[in-house]
Amino acid sequence: MGQIIIGYLYYIYAEYKEMEHLIDRYADEDDFICFDKKTNRQIISSMNYFQAFYMGDGDVLYDYIDGDLLQTETLNMKINWFYLAGITSNGKKNVWISRKIC
User: Fold this and answer.
1) What is the mean pLDDT of each run of 10 residues along the chain (102 residues)?
2) How far apart are CA 42 and CA 100, in angstroms?
């Protein structure tokens, strides 16, 4: 399962060398990849906000359906390349814009 996730990340961030380097670091540092319950309220809040704001509570998914398949690679590439992202650290909001927006 870990190799599938790493391969998916490589596909989504193709041609973005800095991210490929970070994926390599992640793969080298962690031999085991798993999913776990999220308990950090800030992360949960951020995910809920993204779902409501960008995903339209699922309505946007209709734009990525081809036949009877949801094209997750296309959807995730758009999110990771064109969506404005940010994080709050030590009470200060830091914002990053993907390189394709800049």
Assistant:
1) 86 85 86 80 81 77 92 85 67 57 38
2) 27
